[in-house]
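SAMPLE LOG
Freezer: B-3
Tube label: C17
Construct: single chain, 218 aa
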Amino acid sequence: MEYTSIPASRFEEVIRHLRLSFPDEPLNASVGLSLYGKPCSLLEQYDLSTLEEGLSVMAVDTYTNEIAGVLLNGTSKKGDIEEAIKRMETIDNIPYQQIFGLLNNVNKELDLFTKYRVDKIFEFRILAVDPKYRGQGVGKELFLRSEMIAAENGFKLMKVDATSFFTQKICDSFGFETIKTIRYGDYLDENGQKIYNTKSPHDYYKVMIKILHGKRND
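STRUCTURE (predicted):
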């Protein structure tokens, strides 16, 4: 397996990979934003803007040149969350609002920029491993390479909105700290029905962080 940054020449291939590997992400599976093999313009705009930052990594099968997994990483700066919440007012896609509304509101409440005295945060955004390559340590290696990229680019704080139990396990293995835990089952609509009907073991969304270099940014 070869691990490398993602060149622009493979962006479209990454998007096709995500159409097949991302739909089983717990939040997405529960609200149906992205369907298996189908384009989702709102999500793919987000994916492409993240890819264009040049911080993402992929695993490539050295025998077939097939993408085995990707980890899309991006930068969050102070004020970005507030802008994202304002943009949500113009979006009428309910599943998109349900996913990103939850993530944005939780992160606004946490205000990590003030708490950790940083002006930028390295975000591990989307981890997607082809089902046939799962269980081979691909996700962990993508995390390792991403942490190296964060350090090389001078980030002091890394963050994961860990919506999957398996992502949370990887984060734990890399020494990430859970600073917020949300139980999906606590969110009900006006009829008392679960908004996020995720399947076990994906019962919680956790915001997990790790400080690089062992200190805060003064």
